[in-house]
Amino acid sequence: MKRVLVINANPKNQSFCKSLADNYALEAALTHEVKQLHVSDMKFDISLDQGYDSVATLEPDLLHFQELVLWSEHIVIITPVWWGTVPAKFKGLIDRVFLPNFAFKYVEGKVFPEKLLLGRNSELYITLDTPPFWYKYFKGNVIYKQLKTSILDFSGIKNRSTTYLGPVIGSSFETRQKWLSKVVKQAGKIP
């Protein structure tokens, strides 16, 4: 049994990402301990105005998110692509929470920081309004590079898989049901 954190990164109250997150969590909860987080429910300032020059006080929702990340062994991120990458509120969540001495630690005399979130793995589910092959091969796959390399790998979280679903816009009910079934099936196979 693993401790699984399912993050719906879509800031909208109702979305296909929310349906994916809810269905993933229900299936995973049959064999694992699961907690969910919906970015839409969170209240916090998304801007890291002073960078790392000063320590900003974390709002209660951000402190709770830190607790969930530390609790988790497996993190599932379900996010739409907005303007080529993650929505601003989710990026703000990462900016505000994945801080030095939480996600990584600068070490004097070393080029690369120490990764502080080792021992966790992740899955990414990315929804798009363009065909996935177009986004990945012609648009540069920015969201994957940002999440996997610049955030997860940087802090020690190993990404196990990435699933692209799209185009969502104009998709039929049957197509969305097929995608939901795929996500539910994968939720039943958490290593």
UniProtKB/TrEMBL annotation:
Q: Boundaries of each Flavodoxin-like fold domain copy?
A: 2-170
E.C. number, please? 1.-.-.-, 1.6.99.-
InterPro entries on file? Flavodoxin_fold, Flavoprotein-like_sf, NAD(P)H_dehydrogenase_qn
What broad class of enzyme is this?
A: oxidoreductase
Keywords, A to Z, come to: Oxidoreductase
Q: Which SUPFAM superfamilies does the annotation name?
A: Flavoproteins (SSF52218)
What Pfam families does the entry give? Flavodoxin_2
Q: Which GO terms describe its molecular function?
A: oxidoreductase activity
Establish whether keyword Oxidoreductase is in the entry: yes
The yes or no answer to whether the keyword Transport is present is: no
Q: Which family does it belong to?
A: Belongs to the NAD(P)H dehydrogenase (quinone) family.
Q: What is this protein called?
A: NAD(P)H-dependent oxidoreductase
Q: Which organism is it from?
A: Vibrio rumoiensis
Recall the taxonomic lineage recorded for the source organism: Bacteria, Pseudomonadati, Pseudomonadota, Gammaproteobacteria, Vibrionales
